[in-house]
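note to self — DONT lose this again. spent like an hour looking for the file last time. sequence + predicted structure for the chain T wanted, 200 res
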Amino acid sequence: MGIIITIGREFGSGGRELGRRLAEQLNIEYYDKEIISEIAQHTSLSEKYVTQVLERQPHTLYPIVVGHSFNTFNQYYYLQLQSVFRAQIKIINDMSEKSDCVIIGRCADFILRDKNPYRIFVYADLDSRLKRCRSRSPEGEHLTDKQLKKQILRIDKDRARFYRYFTGKKWGSRENYDICINTSNIVIKDIVPVLAKMFK
């Protein structure tokens, strides 16, 4: 079995950047939003809807199906939800079998648990996450600090709910991970070379 690294992360903690840089350092594949596109192709659901399912509490959502009306498919909601789950499991397993890789989020740590992945969780204090989100916010976005903090906490809450729904485990709980990294006071690009040595 090769190297499989899964990364869970609080919103704004820099987990995605850490994963991308780590994959580059190790010269292995990096999977993130590609998973959404693959699921959408497998299920004929829109990428927007698949994203909502994977990042929010499932039973609060309704399907947006490519090429079909809402009313026609409302009765098949739960079948579609299960279809997304099954596609996610298959795609993540397929990706992990093709080559060494880093996979961001998507409950990959749980899905690949029988393959003994290195499970990383990235977190940071709220002020640090606020600052990081500000530095990466789209031009023209004018959220107050209060609004942005509320958005950060909502996204984390949605991720925690989905993780619990899918795995039965507590998202971010240290016993579910091999390494937990606090990025509040560190520069991500500086710690990646040190972290990469663990996998070489």
